[in-house]
Design goal:
heterodimer, A: alpha/beta, D-Maltodextrin-Binding Protein, domain 2, 16 strands, globular, disordered N terminus, B: 349 residues, mainly alpha, MetI-like fold, two-stranded antiparallel sheet
Chain lengths: 448, 349
């Protein structure tokens, strides 16, 4: 009797076990997708598909289709990467039906290159296009001398600041991080609940940009291996700096992609936004009522004699492994990143302050951009200066999404008083290494 | 629900244990098939062999759906997971070369087992089990004993009230509790605030108890019904005998009734363990409101994260297989241990 019962129980147990892997079945297509067929012309045209979450993509595609007969683009709007766009792309690639052209942000390019989703396009990249692109931008999508995607924009991190409030409190625009801290003290003392800045708990890309500026090299590919050292000396300096600001309550600390942060900006509780050039346009769209209150300045420096910045944001276009018409896909990409009409079309969709990776287009952006929101400030000239300060040699890791999640989870814990920013960086490294090992990559680990 | 009527009937019925019911049913089904085969029209000409064939055909028809489902939704996915955990699309060095699928041995397993975030998620779920399973088993048993002892008035209403939360899907339950836990919108927190008590249900030390609370709320009634059914099968003579011997209601409940439903206790504990190890829905939903729940909070969440945000199927598959083995081993261990305890007890008698 006990014997029989035991066998039955075990069988019941096995039958009751749901397989965790079965979860994989249910996360297929996220979000509603609207395919738009804008092609009106000849049947002989080669049709390629294009996925993007970037604003203005529909306008760009329409402009392309109007002026091209041989190649026609079918555009599909997808959710932004972290909102499900990357999952959708990975799943489509696994199923063998990825679009011809996919939009990938810089930090994810190595992952998609390693997974074989982004095709090696070195041979398809014309010398003309190569010459047109900012070398720092192309460097971020090139590995082992092979190009895996084409940069659309490069976004140097800048300081957006509340001109009116700076004036009210008699503040000078800080040029160094030291001055930034002093300014933060003044704001805290006199600002009645206001703070100079926000340290975003969901700010992996912001923190990376700070570290990048300070000279960090989180990933290095010397010697044919991924050499990982997230907590290198410059990063430790950056972490200690922000930790001090957090501990002294000189900055807010919460998520930036949140209603809380929206309220902080809308109510003037935060005096600066440290983000990419693109954010100037996003701000115009999000808060038209603050017209005339904002201005843009270079990011504070560690050493003004040797200025450097990192980038925050920016997208690239990849031809996927499933593309049956890689040449046509490349023709569309080249037009999109380097033709004046493409940028004009994108800017026509509304306010955008994207800084193109092809410097020739900067003048187009400057002309098309409505300066009134920023009180006539010529922000494109500022962006141009800053773009040239982007420190060369930064390499994103092979699994940025893993690094990002673990780091942000621990930033959030740090905001709850559990651990420090530096702990978060170290945890992020620990949480990334198993992924790299499981992928069979050659790795070395450096940490102090 | 007419308890007073069913009670006297339940007593004299010669039912030994609730768990013996399934095989009896099975036997009856097969018995009727056999009977049907023998008395079928044309029985004169039908040979033994054809009757037997028909019997087999009937058995096959009845069993096929089960095996089809077992193979398609269990064995094939498990096999795929095992395969994925041992093979990888490898490129040498930095990983930008052409891919080829190779046998990678235990590499994915080594990576999972050296991943502090995975070990952390296991620690979380162990802590969760340690808190949740005793609370669940003791709570459900106590409620069932109370109902059975007749202390509770309006028994059917109490049963309905306790069982109803189980009818609420897990995801809805989590949403309801998310509402009650979130500062700013929760009436509960507001009520506490009025009494000058600040309470953060989603803080570092409170988030696990908060999850336990959701699970208890959802499943307590269900397990109580299982215990209650088992208690119905306890022979009335035994209880009468204990009353005659002078045992009070508490002593009767703890020392007479409880040992007689021990097999149900084991079963409930084991199913609770299995579901607890797969902790997923509640923390995923609560993670939207609490930074204290990260993307790799429980093993199931780790697996989900590995597969879908990190696109690392080898890692996800290895973690799945490890979780599967752990679950089977723990369930087997629980069964073996209780069987041994039972037989030791019988031997002592």
């Amino acid at each position: 009797m006990p014997g029989r019962q035991s066998r039955r129980s075990v069988l019941a147990t096995i039958a009751a076990l749901p397989l965790a892997g079965a979860l994989s079945a249910c996360s297929g297509g996220g979000g509603s997708s609207s395919t738009s067929k804008t092609s009106t012309t000849s049947r002989k045209a080669t049709h390629i598909t294009f996925w993007s979450a970037l604003r203005g993509s529909q306008e760009v595609v329409d402009a392309f289709n109007k002026t091209h007969d041989r190649v026609q683009v079918d555009y599909q709007q997808v959710p932004s990467g972290t909102q499900g766009g990357y999952v959708k792309l990975s799943n489509a690639a696994r199923a063998g039906n990825a679009p011809d052209v996919a939009t990938i942000e810089y930090p994810q390019v190595p992952a998609y290159a390693i997974d074989g989703v982004a095709r090696d396009i070195t041979g398809l990249l014309s010398d003309r296009l190569r010459a047109r692109l900012l070398p720092q931008a192309l460097g971020l999508t090139t590995f082992e001398k092979r190009v895996f995607s084409v940069p659309l924009d490069i976004e140097p991190m800048v300081m957006h600041y509340r001109k009116d409030l700076f004036r009210r409190y008699g503040l000078d625009v800080p040029r160094t991080w030291e001055e930034f801290e002093e300014t933060a003290e003044t704001v805290r003392r006199e600002g009645a609940g206001r703070r100079l800045a926000l340290f975003p708990t969901d700010g992996f890309t912001q923190f990376a940009a700070y570290s990048w500026q300070a000279g960090a090299q989180w990933f290095d590919t010397a010697g044919g291996a991924w050499n990982v050292s997230l907590a290198d000396a410059p990063t430790r300096k950056v972490a200690a700096y922000w930790q001090r600001l957090v501990d002294r309550r000189l900055v807010h600390m919460n998520a930036v992609e949140s209603t809380q942060a929206d309220a902080q900006i809308a109510n003037g509780l935060v005096l600066t936004r440290l983000s990419g050039a693109w954010d100037a346009g996003a701000q115009m769209n999000a808060r038209p009522g603050q017209k005339g209150q904002w201005s843009i300045a270079p990011l504070p420096q560690w050493d003004p004699a040797r200025p450097a910045v990192g980038t925050h944001g920016g997208s690239t276009f990849a031809v996927t492994k499933d593309s049956k018409h890689p040449e046509a896909a490349m023709e569309f990409i080249e037009w999109q990143v380097s033709h004046p009409d493409a940028l004009r079309a994108r800017l026509s969709s509304g306010a955008s302050s994207q800084y193109p990776a092809a410097p020739e287009l900067v003048d187009i952006g400057r002309e098309a951009f409505d300066r009134s929101y920023y009180g006539g400030q010529d922000i494109y000239t500022l962006f141009e200066q800053e773009a040239h300060k982007v420190r060369d040699g930064w390499i994103w890791g092979p699994r940025s999404s893993a690094t990002q999640k673990v780091m942000q989870d621990n930033f959030a814990r740090a905001s709850g008083g559990q651990g420090s920013l530096l702990d978060a960086v170290r945890e992020a490294q620990k949480g990334t290494m198993p992924d790299l090992r499981a992928l069979g990559l050659a790795t070395t680990e450096h940490s102090t | 629900m007419s308890q007073p009527v069913s009670r006297p009937l339940a007593g004299p019925l010669p039912v030994s244990e609730d768990t013996t019911t399934p095989p009896e049913t099975t036997r009856r089904v097969f018995g009727s098939i056999r009977a049907g085969g023998a008395s079928s029209p044309g029985g004169r000409t039908a040979t033994r062999a054809s009757a037997r064939r028909r019997e087999l055909a009937a058995a096959a028809t009845l069993m096929t759906p089960f095996y089809v489902l077992l193979v398609t939704v269990f064995l094939i996915p498990v096999g795929t997971a095992v395969w994925l955990s041992f093979f990888g699309d490898d490129q040498p060095g930095l990983g930008f070369g052409p891919e080829r699928t190779v046998f990678v041995g235990l590499r994915s397993y080594a990576a999972v087992l050296t991943d502090p975030t995975f070990l952390g998620s296991l620690g979380t779920v162990v802590l969760y089990c340690v808190v949740y399973i005793p609370l669940m088993v003791i709570g459900a048993l106590a409620l069932a004993l109370l109902l059975d002892s007749g202390v509770v008035r309006l028994r059917s209403w109490a049963q309905l009230g306790l069982f109803l939360p189980h009818a609420v899907p897990g995801i809805i339950a989590a949403l309801i509790w998310l509402y009650l836990y979130t500062p700013g919108i929760s009436p509960v927190i507001e009520l506490f605030a009025k009494a000058d008590i600040t309470i953060d249900f989603l803080g570092v030390h409170t988030v696990l108890p908060s999850i336990v609370n959701i699970a208890l709320w959802s499943n307590l009634g269900y397990n109580m019904v299982i215990f209650y059914a088992a208690l119905q099968a306890v022979p009335r003579e035994v209880i009468e005998a204990s009353v005659v011997d002078g045992a009070g209601p508490v002593r009767t409940a703890l020392q007479v009734k409880t040992p007689l439903v021990s097999s149900s206790i084991v079963m409930v504990a084991m199913f609770t363990l299995i579901f607890a190890l797969q902790l997923f829905t509640e923390p995923v939903l609560l993670s939207q409101s609490s930074p204290m729940i990260n993307a790799r909070f429980s093993p199931s969440m780790y697996i989900y994260d590995a597969a879908f945000t990190r696109n690392n199927y080898g890692l996800a598959a290895a973690a799945s297989v490890i979780l599967l083995i752990l679950t089977v081993a723990l369930s087997y261990g629980v069964t073996r241990w209780t069987n041994r305890a039972n037989s030791a007890e019988e031997a002592a008698r």
